[in-house]
Every structure is written in C-alpha cells, then in structure tokens.
Amino acid sequence: MKRKNKYKFKRNLVEVLKIMFFLGITIVVFLPIMVTVFASFKTQFQIGSEFPLKPPTQFFLDNFKFVFEKGNVLTGLKNSLILVTVSVVVNAVLSTMIAYILSRFDFKLKKMYFLIFLMGMLVPSFVTEIARFGVISKVGLYNTLLAPIVIYIGTDLMQIYIYMQFMNQIPMSIDESAMIDGASYFTIYRKVIFPMVIPATATLGILKAVEVMNDMYIPYLYMPSESKRTLTTMLMSFASQRSGAWPQLSAAVIIVMIPTVTLYIVFQKYIFDGIVAGAVKE
C-alpha cells in the first residue's frame, strides 16, 4: 500500500511539473503579445505612467489611424500579397516536379542531387549572400518584386522529402495504366500525381506563405525603394523613424500580425494533417 501511494505521488508530481512547464512557456509567448496589444490602444502618457499589463481604460484608435496614413500600409499589403501568391504557386510546381522525378525515376548521380539539396540546408545563407546579391544585381532584378520571388520559389530538402512521402504511397501501377492509355510523363504528373499530393501542397503552401509574409531581411535588402515596401519592411522603417513613439509602433506591429495570424487560424488544421498523412505508411 505504501509503495502504491509513493508511485501515485511521483506520477502526480510529474503531471504538476508538466503543467507548470507548459504554463511557463505559454506566459513567455503571450506576455509580449498582450503588452503590445494593450500599448497599441494607449496614449504615450498612459504607457509611461501605467503598468504595461494594465488593459486600456478606453480604446485609443488614433494610433492605428496614424499608421495607416503615414506607413503606406495598403502598398505594403499589396506587395506582400503579390510575393506570397506568386512564390507559393511557383514553389509548389517546382517542388512537386523535383519530387516526382526523384521518386519515380532512377538515374545516375541521383544521390548527388540529394546531397546538393542537403548542402544547401547546411551552409548558412549569409555565406552565399554576397554572391547571390551580385547575381540578382547583374541580371537586373535589384529593386524589383522579381528579386525576392526568384529567391522564395526555390525548393528545399524538407519540401522534397514530404512530397516524396506522399508520392511513394501512390502505386506505380497507376502510372503504368496512364502510360498504356498514351499519357506522357508530364501528363501523368499534371493529371495523376499532382492532384493526389494536394494535401501536402496545402500544408507546405501555408508554411511557405507564413515564411514569406513574415520575412523582413530579403525584401529590405533587395527592394529598398519606398514603393516596393512590404508590411514587414514598412514596420522596420517605421520603428527606425519613430523609435520613441511606442503606441504607434505597437499599432503597426498589430497590423502586420493580422494577415499571418488569420492565415494560421483558418488553415492550421491542414498544416498538421498534411504532415501526419505523409508520414503514415499503409
């Protein structure tokens, strides 16, 4: 009896520690967000005189109005949506084509291709940044929307691996049946393979969209002009020019967060479903 109670005590203690651990992580994640949301509805005087976690007594909307008027938010939103849409579509096509070739055909240096993609993930991006910047400038894409698009549409080993997990579950007999009916390799890819990897495409497309939408470095480096600003570079310039205006800066942060948070809330179910479905083998 005493041994049983001791085991029960240890099990309850582990559960309490787990709850405290995840509660601590939740506080660390949500505390800065709460401070930013509250600050976006306060005046400069309230921020300086009140506790940061105190909710605003009234919603002061002039901060958002100021950001929309001075920050050129609509231009930033338009440029961000163009980058996300074009990058996600072209990236999905290129990734599925590469995965289709690597999963369906055997050829020389096939392992070398995997090694090249692996090296691309292992080498830090800043090592190749100077060379990449030179290439973008030489081909005349600098300070255009095509510069970040060319960078974003490239696939990586994780995307290829997830697509191959899906394609390996598609029987080769389907390809052979299509070939008997006269379908070419491209027709098989377009009408058979691609429609059957739509769940993986939805998952990777959402992750890619969030990555592009949140990226500040590439648009800031390759599109410095004001007319090419995205939401994130708008926020960066806003922070540098208005470093003392925390209410307006907090309002700008909230505006930049809205598209990404909306995208995640609407499509979060497909993110995990797509990855899990590709990992299960029947």
UniProtKB/TrEMBL annotation:
ABC transmembrane type-1 domain: residues covered: 77-267
Keyword Transport appears in the UniProt entry: yes
Residue runs in coiled coils: none
KW Zinc (keyword) present: no
Gene3D superfamilies cross-referenced by the UniProt entry: MetI-like
One GO CC term on file: plasma membrane
Record membrane topology: Multi-pass membrane protein
Subcellular location: Cell membrane
InterPro entries per record: MetI-like (IPR000515), MetI-like_sf (IPR035906)
Biological-process GO terms, alphabetical: transmembrane transport
Key words, A-Z: Cell membrane, Membrane, Transmembrane, Transmembrane helix, Transport
Transmembrane stretches, start-end: 21-41, 81-102, 114-135, 141-164, 192-210, 245-267
Pfam families per the UniProt record, alphabetical: BPD_transp_1
Predominant location category: membrane
Family label: Belongs to the binding-protein-dependent transport system permease family.
Designated name of the protein: Carbohydrate ABC transporter permease
